[in-house]
């Protein structure tokens, strides 16, 4: 991004395409701002200061969204700015005009862009071409805003993150990739139990492992869900079929049948283990309603924190000094 870097505001003007774009101390900086904004918002559901006053955000969504879309738009409004929703049909990149031309236009209209698309390379190209910050709101390879909210939630519930054990049960997918990168940087032990053939990207595993080694965490991959959750503080369930993979639903349902987060699996982890899910959930598939609505679930706190963490991120990237 343009401008002279300000050491007191290291995230100002930055992109967030991969969870690895944020150093561990930068993640903690976002958490600190999010924590302050959440506490302030809890009192009157308003903010006394409006650090994003008259700032504008373009939200490019090529795929469906409830949480990401609403929390970014609500967050902008609550902090004094506004957001403009654009669908694939509006923009027509690659058909009506190139990603580069979309980036160049938006850069002169608004202050930042968030993008939800399939191919990760499109988000990377948009960030490279735009001279304003671009934030990844989900690609098939990563979901960094989700991971920020997830690890922030763990920080709220457990306090210290170092040595915490999170067992992700299911696909080595975009949600796992970003969770592994953010969690490892905070010293979390990230385990994944995946069916054969559904391993994560080895490059992400290597990067997360390096982050874990430098920060006191661990990354462990396995196929047996019972071994992975044994002694875990948290079980993380996610959809067996992600957006864009619908043609694989039948094959995936068979492959993931033994990877359901249910009471029997939670019992192996222990009585105090908590359960996460990034939502939307497919009740009766990757998670049972009994677990999702039961006392172990921190799923709706996790979802609410999308709002607070993204506000923290937006203020760090775009905001006026407090
Ligand atoms: N978890 C998540 O990104 O939800 P949405 O797809 O509804 O935005």
Please identify the structural class as seen in this structure: alpha/beta
CA(first)-CA(last) distance: 22 Å
Assess the beta-strand content as a share of residues: 5-15%
Please trace the helix and strand order, writing H or E for each element: HEHEHHEHEHEHEHEHEHHEHH
Present as ligands are: phosphoric acid mono(formamide)ester
Biggest pleated-sheet summary: 5 strands, parallel
Strands of the widest sheet, in order across it, are 7-6-5-8-9
Counting copies of identical and different chains, the oligomeric state is single chain
Question: What's the CATH class label of the largest domain?
Answer: Alpha Beta
| Radius of gyration from the alpha-carbon trace, in angstroms | 19 Å
The proportion of residues forming helix, as a percent range, comes to 40-55%
CATH topology (fold) name of the largest domain: Rossmann fold
Overall 3D shape: globular
Write the layout of secondary structure elements.
Blueprint: H1 24-44, E1 56-61, H2 67-78, E2 82-87, H3 88-91, H4 99-109, E3 112-116, H5 120-129, E4 134-136, H6 144-158, E5 165-169, H7 174-185, E6 189-193, H8 202-215, E7 218-222, H9 225-229, E8 234-237, H10 249-255, H11 263-269, E9 274-277, H12 289-292, H13 299-318
């Amino acid at each position: 991004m343009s401008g002279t870097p300000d050491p007191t505001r290291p995230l100002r003007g930055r992109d967030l395409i991969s969870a690895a774009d944020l150093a561990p101390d930068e993640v903690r900086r976002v958490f600190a701002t999010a924590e302050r904004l959440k506490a302030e918002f809890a009192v009157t559901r308003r903010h006394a200061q409006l650090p994003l006053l008259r700032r504008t955000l373009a939200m490019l969504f090529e795929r469906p969204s409830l949480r990401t879309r609403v929390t970014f738009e609500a967050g902008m409004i609550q902090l004094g700015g506004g957001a403009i929703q654009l669908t694939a049909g509006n923009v027509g990149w690659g058909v009506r005009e190139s990603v580069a031309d979309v980036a160049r236009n938006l850069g002169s209209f608004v202050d930042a862009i968030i993008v939800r698309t399939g191919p990760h390379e499109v988000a990377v190209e948009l960030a490279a071409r735009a001279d304003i910050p671009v934030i990844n709101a989900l690609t098939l390879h990563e979901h960094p805003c989700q991971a920020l909210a997830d690890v922030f939630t763990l920080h709220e519930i457990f306090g210290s993150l170092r040595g915490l054990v999170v067992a992700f049960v299911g696909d080595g997918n975009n949600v796992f990739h970003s969770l592994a990168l953010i969690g490892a940087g905070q010293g979390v032990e990230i385990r994944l139990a995946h069916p054969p053939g559904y391993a994560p990207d080895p490059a992400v595993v290597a990067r997360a492992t390096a982050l874990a080694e430098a920060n006191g965490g661990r990354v462990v991959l396995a196929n047996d869900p019972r071994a992975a959750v044994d002694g875990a503080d948290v079980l993380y369930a996610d959809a067996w079929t992600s957006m864009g993979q619908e043609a694989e639903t039948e094959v995936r349902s068979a492959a993931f049948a033994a990877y359901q987060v249910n009471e029997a699996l939670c019992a192996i982890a222990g009585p105090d283990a908590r359960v996460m899910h990034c939502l939307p959930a497919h009740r009766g598939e990757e998670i049972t309603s009994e677990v999702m609505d039961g006392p172990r679930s921190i799923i709706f706190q996790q979802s609410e924190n999308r709002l607070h963490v993204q506000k923290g991120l937006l203020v760090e990237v775009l905001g006026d000094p407090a």
